[in-house]
Every structure is written in C-alpha cells, then in structure tokens.
C-alpha cells in the first residue's frame, strides 16, 4: 500500500533568508564605487577641465557607469522597499533611492549636454 503523508509533517528546510539578505547588502556595498563613478563623471570632460571644446564622445562615458549602477540600486530599492517595516531595510531602500536620483540627475545632465551640442552645431562631431 501507498503511504499517506500527513500534511502537518515538517516541510523540508527552506534556504536561509538571512544569507540572501546579507548577500544583497554585500552586492550593494561592492557596487558603491560604481555608483560614485556614475555620479562623478562629468557630462563633458573638456568643460570639467576648463577647456572650451566639443566632447564628441557624447554621454556614453556617463552611461558606461550609470546604467549598471542604476539597475543595481534600483533593484536594491525595490527589494528592500518590499520589507519596509524593518528599519534596516527601510534605510537601505532610502539610500538606494537617493543614489538612483543622483545617478539619474547625472544621466539627465549628460543627455542635455548632448542635445545642446547637436542643437547648436549639428556637424561638429562628424
């Protein structure tokens, strides 16, 4: 005969949520230099050095660091924001949101710099 299983028997152990939580925090800490580069990259490297010249690279130098950092910290904000009742998760989510806003501001500045370049002189970098 087949054995009938009791639904109240102990279930197999689930993976430890603390391990996943700590791993997520480690990823956010390790990605912090990437976020700092994304916020610190000037939209026009020449203007940042005091040279009045056209930067034909466009916003790619900002996007190179900003897009991965925005994805990592956006995911961190969402995943930690889901557990907003825990103070640690709420504060980590708030820090991730602030970093995302600062990175998005730098992306916006780089895009506006490129738009003003193409508006003022469309043949400058061809």
What is the gist of this entry?
With 126 residues, the protein is an all-alpha fold.
Biggest β-sheet strands, sense, barrel: none
Helices and strands, in N-to-C order? HHHHH
Overall shape: it is elongated
Q: What distance separates the N and C termini?
A: 81 Å
Count helical runs. 5
Strand content: under 5%
**Strand-pairing-aware structural class:** mainly alpha
Please explain how this structure is put together.
Helix 2 packs across helix 4, helix 2 (32-40) packs parallel to helix 5 (87-120) and helix 4 packs antiparallel against helix 5. This protein has a domain at 56-118. The longest helix is centred in the last third of the chain and has 34 residues, at 87-120. The chain has helices spanning 17-30, 32-40, 45-48, 60-81, 87-120. It is mainly α and 126 residues long.
């Amino acid at each position: 005969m087949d054995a009938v299983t009791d639904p109240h028997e102990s279930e197999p152990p689930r993976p430890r949520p603390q391990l996943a939580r700590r791993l997520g925090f480690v990823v956010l800490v390790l990605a912090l230099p990437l976020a700092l580069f994304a916020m610190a990259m000037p939209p026009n490297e020449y203007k940042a050095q005091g040279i009045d010249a056209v930067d034909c690279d466009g916003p790619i130098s900002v996007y190179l660091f900003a897009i991965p950092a925005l994805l990592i910290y956006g995911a961190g904000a969402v995943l930690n924001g889901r557990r907003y009742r825990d103070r640690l998760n709420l504060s980590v989510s708030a820090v991730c949101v602030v970093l995302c806003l600062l990175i998005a501001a730098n992306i916006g500045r780089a895009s506006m710099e490129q738009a003003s370049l193409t508006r003022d002189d469309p043949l400058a970098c061809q």
